[in-house]
Sequence to fold (530 residues):
Amino acid sequence: MKGLLILVLVAWLLPPATSAQLKINAQALKLNNVFSIISNMYVDTINENKIVEAAIVGALKELDPHSSYIPKAEVDRVNEPLEGSFEGVGIQFQLFEDTILVVQTISGTPAEKVGVMPGDRIVYIDNELVAGVKFQNSDVTKRLRGTRGSVVEVKIRRRGVKELMLFKITRDKIPVNSIDANYMIDKQTGYIRINNFGSKTMLEYKEAFSKLREQGMKNLILSLQGNGGGYMNAAIELADEFLGAGQLIVYTEGARQPKSVANASSRGDFETGKLIILVDEYSASASEIVSGAVQDWDRGLIVGRRSFGKGLVQRQIPLSDGSMLRLTTSRYHTPTGRSIQKPYKDGVEKYQKDLEERFKHGEMVTADSIQFPDSLKYKTLKLGRTVYGGGGIMPDVFIPIDTTRFTMYHRKVVAQGIMNKVSVQYIEKNRTNLKRQYPAFDKFLHQFTVDDTLLKLILDAAEAEKIVFDEQQYEKSKALMALQLKALIARDLWSVNEYYRIIDSDNEALQAALKILNTPGMYDKKLTNR
Fold:
């Protein structure tokens, strides 16, 4: 009986019984009795799996906002960004007019090796007709992914080729990259954008860093904007690149976990150059470990908006049926002793609305709206600057969010996928000409413009989706929409790196960081609060 699973799980997790543990065991027995009574006496047939999982979820909700239960079917998907790979064929696709359109093939993957190309349309997968079928993205993913070494057959229609083309693709490990972009912004400043902290993040970072250093990088802008965290060890390794040997990076402790200290272990590759880290309200956990350590040691500047405020450490605990617990076991503290975790004593619902409340209170547009009590003030370890704990990393240089161009009309267009649809449609019709006219990205960057004719494709597609046109809102958002469309076209013609090279021209925090680095004396002035 599945009710026994609860007892087995609890017993397995517990050390030898103490008086406190005996009380817990008694509660576990009570839970087991309730489940047994329900199983044997409830009026209707029950789904035992569903009840057990609901009980687990309910129990974890009583603990904190970040302890969670992951069903067996979701474990691989949840872990993919952290593990840095999945097993499949290496196709980036988009559903376009009930057709699976290949947007890109990932470099070095099975799909690229057999000759699948951007712009191809997948008609059959293993002899199953998939064109003209109302598929969701998950339906396609399920058919293309599979065990490494297994073979999937796809039949493709290619522009200019009369017959369907058959490809036999042997599935393999497909990388999930942590780094979205890395490029030289100017002759001295390199830029690296990290989207999460996974098992392969440092390998990617070192490769990107080496490439930029070879191009003459002396200053580094590291973007952790939107980076929700990941593996703590990856964050420690990254912080180690910026700090001197022996300097404290982070320490953790919990009621049932001994204090654990992580120090910089060896000479890092970038201990002395000018460093700026970009953060925003979605930068969390591992991102806050890195930015907190850099700030506490006065090693660099933090630019942007207050980070999320997740200072709880989760341990992944596999369960016997293949499902998994992510259980909070400790809190982490920055080198000055700051706890970055924001309060959650008022419940999960209020906790989850915290960012919404920040918007309402004006925090996103002015730093003055954020008030910290004296008890949350700390001094940095070298320069004695005031920094704050109790809920995220407060940046050294605050950058307000620009809401002037974000209108409701624009939000609807983006939310309903109109921008992506128009980008795919435009490239589908013009790929050959675009590649001929812009053989290199730099030429596209400086010469390609999104004119009114191209923008009208967005308006027409929006109208087809019954989005009511608002001329005043459109005029406010027009420049932003043009920039976003150009970036999407670049992404589909080249890669996500080129997408960010375009879209980052609108990144206020990045532009502010560049100004700080390129204005004589400003970096040191900001760092010393003079």
Notes: Residues 1-12 have pLDDT under 50 and may be disordered. Residues 408-494 form one domain. The first strand starts at residue 68 and ends at 70.
